[in-house]
Design brief:
303 residues, alpha/beta, 2 domains, 5-stranded parallel beta sheet
């Protein structure tokens, strides 16, 4: 297997190479320390499966407690397969887990949400709002210190470029790689495989015989991210190193901006559900705002 454009490694050396890169990222960004309880967002897809496998392997001597949060968003003919894979993995690795569902948390499913979603809101953006809420709820119930997500290098580069194209300086500045305790109800996030590219993730899964859901969510083609994804894929293919250069560029910009940390971000408790929101004008979180809009639309449809 090839670790980069010019070098080839055997299966065991390739796995060691990837695990070493992850360890380096964890140390560089000071993601966690000895004795931390980490809840891994586990979807059953390649990124989260590889993330959990690597963390289990590299933290065994650090007294790190690992848990998993598995979320059923409610996507018919798709989600169940990923959940089965996730459950098989936590069982084989002997990792405690929390299984949550949109139906149980929000009394609806993503399929239903998409049918009545607010005008101009993509399915992925809608799902992301509720998934983040669910992950935080799950981590709080597990009493975890951190949430680890399977965002890889491709994901990070796409997000950085999307924020730049939107002119969203606040999100650009908030994308710190170090975990920050912003509020007692907010569990900090870490991204241990953020410097591992998508092909590297796939090769690692193959090298370690890891089963994962190898199909795209049916709502993914609607995402704005796809055009950015295709553009960056083409650029990385033509100019090796494009993705990591984007990540390094963001780090350089943030280090030169005074007050780039998101520690001073202010949170308030949502007046509807009690979750956190940074909307000081209405004191209603994005999830409750969307739910209110969807209820109105559903009522109008039924008239």
């Amino acid at each position: 297997m090839n670790s980069d454009k010019d070098n080839f490694l055997c299966v065991s050396c390739y796995s060691f190479f990837i695990e070493k890169k992850v360890k380096k990222s964890i140390r560089k960004y000071e993601m966690f320390e000895y004795g931390t309880h980490i809840a891994v967002g586990l979807s059953g897809g390649k990124d989260s499966v590889v993330l959990l496998h690597i963390l289990k392997k590299i933290t065994k001597d650090q007294k790190i407690k690992l848990s998993a949060i598995i979320i059923d968003e409610g996507v018919e003919n798709y989600r169940n397969r990923g959940i089965i894979i996730a459950l098989d993995l936590v069982k084989s690795l002997e990792i405690p887990f929390k299984l949550l569902s949109y139906k149980g948390l929000y009394d609806t499913t993503l399929d239903t949400m998409v049918e009545i979603k607010p005008l101009g809101k993509s399915s992925c953006a809608l799902c992301g709002t509720f998934r983040r809420k669910a992950l935080n709820f799950g981590a709080l119930s597990l009493k975890a210190d951190l949430i680890a997500t399977g965002h890889n290098l491709d994901d990070e580069a796409q997000t950085i470029l999307m924020n730049m194209l939107r002119g969203d300086i606040n999100r650009f500045k908030r994308s710190s790689k170090q975990p920050n305790q912003l509020h007692k109800k907010f569990i900090p996030r870490i991204k241990p495989i953020l410097e591992i590219s998508q092909p590297e993730v796939v090769y690692y899964a193959l090298a370690n015989n890891l089963e994962y859901l190898d199909e795209e969510c049916p709502y993914a083609p609607q995402a704005r991210r796809n055009s950015i994804k295709n553009f960056l894929f083409d650029q990385e293919k033509k100019h090796n190193g494009t993705l990591i250069n984007i990540l390094r560029m963001q780090e350089a910009i943030l280090s030169s901006i005074e007050g780039n940390s998101n520690i001073d971000k202010e949170f308030f408790e949502c007046e509807v559900c009690g979750d956190l929101t940074d909307n000081k004008n209405t004191l209603i979180c994005a999830g409750c705002k969307f739910r209110g809009e969807m209820k109105k639309k559903k009522h109008l449809i039924s008239l």
